[in-house]
Write a structure and sequence with these properties.
The complex is a heterodimer of chains A (109) and B (339). Chain A is built from three helices and no strands. Chain A has 109 residues and is mainly alpha-helical. The relative contact order of chain A is 0.04. The model of chain B has no long low-confidence stretch (mean pLDDT 86). The chains are: A mainly alpha (109), B mainly alpha (339).
């Protein structure tokens, strides 16, 4: 088989520059094309049904949901983070009771 | 079983608590072990049991943020979270996800979104799964040929070549043990962000292999660092869905309870398993996710969701089996050393 010709360095650099320019052009064109505005979304209004609920945590969450989505959203993120931290801490302690080493581990591939 | 049925006022339905705990536990084990959010299990599982799709997605994202905190805390103590790398990637991921979402809207306007995305998803997951499986098989062959002490040189793989690109600023990522240009994780984050947003997945399926094969992280660090990202994207996703009124918070709380226990078990299991074993199970998981989308494409929605839930339970069982085996072996070794 005939060996492939060895290209000089400047040809390699030219090819690399061409590849970069092509990629940049594609990215710029895509961003331009995607900048067109989308159709406005239809607004859906949801209400939690609290009629049969007794006072308690479920009722309180449903009332919060009905009063403001933003407050509900912020409460959701905060509650999930706090629950994650508390449960993570509790599970960590429980795992420690098994008497296994839970410090830094070595990486074996 | 009626005592376990609760009323979910936001979704306006009754649901079994044990089922929520089971779904949470399953996805917690898989998430902690693979470093993924697990939306591919939770969303169809909730949907098949009657959750409307937007609530299924929002509720999944809400519990995902909390669950990832549990896994990230534990992986952090194991030294598996490269915070600097995670933060560098988040910059690219955020921009990439926004660009990907706009690309989806453009496809929607052209009336191509549904068919193009689903087919791209199948091809993409198939390719990732095949590559990870190929890597596992070739590693096993090399190990057999070279003996048990075989250590891969890693000098000529793609990650090593990308790390050598000298584009300032060069940064050392301590937990991963690599030095590379800051632009490498930013660009990898950008690319995985675009792909994740277009395919409608959380990103873990794509980011975890990208961290291994493009950036060069050890498998356990890729898992931990990816969970760090899932934690932040999950919190953001949960906020966006909650302000649109699409999070069933009571269900998310119950799921998080199961997921926290599962995540702890899945994360500790990483300690007892070699990196390539994680990769093999990950490849299997990807193929299952891919097959479920094929079933959806064939209009077999129920079969698809049932397969995912069953596979999730089986995979969690395998991981917990490895965990118990590891704990028993470690305790036996401790007893032997004590004598």
């Amino acid at each position: 088989m005939k060996p492939l010709p060895v290209l000089p360095l400047w040809r390699h650099r030219l090819r690399a520059a061409r590849a970069w320019l092509t990629t940049a052009a594609i990215v710029l064109l895509s961003v331009e094309a995607l900048a067109a505005p989308a159709k406005p979304a239809r607004k859906l209004v949801n209400v939690a049904d609290t009629r049969g609920l007794d006072p308690g945590i479920t009722r309180w969450i449903a009332d919060l949901y009905n009063s403001s989505y933003w407050l509900f959203g912020l409460f959701t993120v905060a509650l999930m983070a706090l629950m994650g931290l508390a449960l993570g801490f509790a599970c960590d302690r429980a795992m420690g009771l098994l008497g296994i080493h839970l410090g830094r581990m070595e990486h074996h591939e | 079983m009626d005592i376990f049925t609760i009323y979910l006022p936001i979704a306006g339905m009754h649901f079994n608590v044990l089922l929520l705990l089971l779904i949470g536990f399953t996805v917690g084990v898989c998430g902690g072990f693979f470093g993924i959010g697990g939306a591919w299990i939770v969303t169809p599982a909730l949907n098949i049991f009657g959750f409307p799709m937007p609530y299924a997605i929002g509720t999944d994202l809400a519990h995902m943020g909390g669950k990832s905190i549990v896994s990230t805390m534990r992986h952090g103590k194991f030294g598996n979270v490269d915070v600097r790398l995670g933060v560098s990637m988040i910059i690219g991921t955020t921009v990439g996800m926004e660009a990907g979402a706009r690309l989806v809207m453009a496809l929607e306007r052209a009336g191509l979104a549904e068919s193009v995305i689903r087919k791209a998803y199948i091809v993409f997951l198939g390719l990732i799964g095949s590559y990870v499986l190929y890597d596992y098989i070739s590693h096993t062959r090399r190990t057999k040929a070279a003996g048990a002490d075989y250590v891969p040189s890693g000098q000529d793989n793609l990650a090593a070549r990308l790390q050598r690109i000298n584009l300032p600023p060069m940064i050392h990522f301590k937990a991963s043990g690599i030095t590379c240009s800051l632009w490498l994780p930013v660009l990898v984050g950008l690319t995985t962000g675009v792909v994740a947003a277009v395919l409608g997945v959380g990103g873990g399926f794509i980011r975890m292999p990208a961290l291994i094969y493009l950036i060069g992280c050890p498998t356990a660090v890729a898992v931990g660092t990816d969970l760090f990202e899932v934690m932040i994207t999950g919190a953001y996703g949960s906020l966006t869905y909650a302000v649109k009124g699409r999070v069933e918070l009571i269900a998310a709380m119950w799921m998080l309870l199961g997921a926290a226990i599962g995540a702890q078990l899945g994360t500790v299991a990483v300690k007892y398993v070699r990196g390539y074993a994680i990769r093999l199970l990950f490849a299997t998981t990807i193929f299952i996710a891919c097959a479920s989308v094929v079933l959806k494409q064939l209009q077999l929605q129920t079969a698809s969701a049932a397969m995912i839930l069953t596979a999730g339970i089986v995979i969690s069982g395998v991981i917990i089996g490895w965990l118990f085996k590891g704990i028993v072996a470690e305790r036996a070794a401790q007893r032997d050393n004590g004598r």
